[in-house]
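Two records follow; treat each independently.
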Amino acid sequence: MSHTKAALKNSYKVFVLTAVAILVGYLLRIYLSRALSIEDFGLFYAVTAFVALFVTLQDFGAGISLAKFISEFAVKKLYTQIKSSILIVLVIQLVILLICNAAVFIFADAISLMFFKTIEASIVLKLLMLSLLFSSVFRIFQFTFQGFQRMKLFAIVEPVRISLAFVLSVLLIYMGIIGVAYAYFLAAVITTVVFFLPFLKMFDGFFKIEANMTKKLTKKLMLFATPVFIGTVASFAILYIDTIMISFFMTLRDVGLYQVAIPTSQFLWVFVTTISMVLFPMITELYTKKKTELVGTNISIFANISFFVTIPFAVILMAFPEIIVSFLFGHDYIGSVAALRILVVGSLFYSIFYLFQNSLMAIGKPTISTRIIIEIAVFNFILNLLFIPMFGIIGAAVTSTLSYFLASLISYRYLKKFVTFKISFGRLARILLSAIITVLVLLFVKGLLVMDNQILEAVLSLVPSFAVYIVLIFATKSVTRRDLEYFRKLGLRLPRWLG
């Protein structure tokens, strides 16, 4: 597995930098929740969700297409083709964005009153739309870095952008929500400037190479980009349509509450997305060598370990949501707790879905992967349309959870057609039983401790409870030492106390 271990090194680098971006983004959200009113906080993220639609449209799947073909052209040293591809994608994206910006600027006031119910959204909408013009440029730099296998540069772009947005938001917060919008706009401008020099240094002689933007090359890029674009639009529907519908049917306060619940529950995604970075190259290598039995073994082991690691954090979020939300965001956001609990369950299903979906991509079945996302997107849209007007953010949370549950079942069914693997439901049941016992121990210990300091009470309750969880996991053989040793052989660093 030499190729796999090499891929692991790059995966770790990308993961660390991605984790930094996620953490900074979450800290920025916490800061804004305390610096802005709950209505302004909700308004900003409602507009952000709306603008995300145009991010999807402007990319048109061309970013991933660009990374793929740059990688191919670089091997053959076809630098004219590389430059031409970059310029084709840049022109297409800028034309789309200019048209979208023109439409939004003309109808900004009407959109603000219709969707966000306040004219204040107009200037925020305009600034975020303008920022996309610069974002399209640094995103092209980013995909070019990926195509040339410069993964550190590829992964560091987003941490730089979100860190700049954080710093500038703090400096401009005196302007309120408009100051935050300016911060995002300036962050996009500065990020573009910052990565222009590394781009030129990596692509030596960019301005000297003659471009040849042919119809044939454009068609080649777009043929690959189109199915990716369809999948991206469907993914947008799953991730953002709930926030847009809450903005339309409910109040900005509801948006604010939901935008606390959503990212907090999504912390449960971190492990499975990380582990999938490791799994992807491994499955690709094994499947190419027709070692399908080993592919199935890897999927089974990774599924068990993912569930084992994710469950404890789900327990924390389920047991102490009031403490977590009030400590991080303030007491005003306690109304998000019920939705958060539901979304935690949804995140567990998402972890399973993501693992299976990623495995389908790894064995070369992107069309099936896209089909699944489209099916779930349609289901998600219809349920949100029915549930949100009746049940508000609870309806949105239930819809997301049901969508991820259905997605995990469908992806499991498709994956079984190509790979023989067995998910040990007995093991999963034992992990779940261990988690339930852990919750009971947690509630018992919590009941014995009556303390004014809720955070200290939570810590003192969690320590013995999770000691019980670890003991139960190994006592019931839900996870074995053989599983852990397998991960260590791959180069994953696991705590020694696990065995």
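The next record belongs to a different protein.
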Amino acid sequence: MEPSVPLANVREMESIIDDSMSRLKFTGVLLEVAAAVALLLAAVGLYGPYLGGVGSGE
């Protein structure tokens, strides 16, 4: 490196890694939300026919 040339965009390695991982973190959170919604819909979908069977006396 040339000592007379000023450095540009100097950052800590932790900051660089956090910036590169932010998209993966967002995707992970989005996937977790989608999984929770799917689990809720599956539970409601299983509970509905159960109530229909109980209510009709079968």
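Discussion point: Helices lie at 13-55. How would you locate this feature using only the token line?
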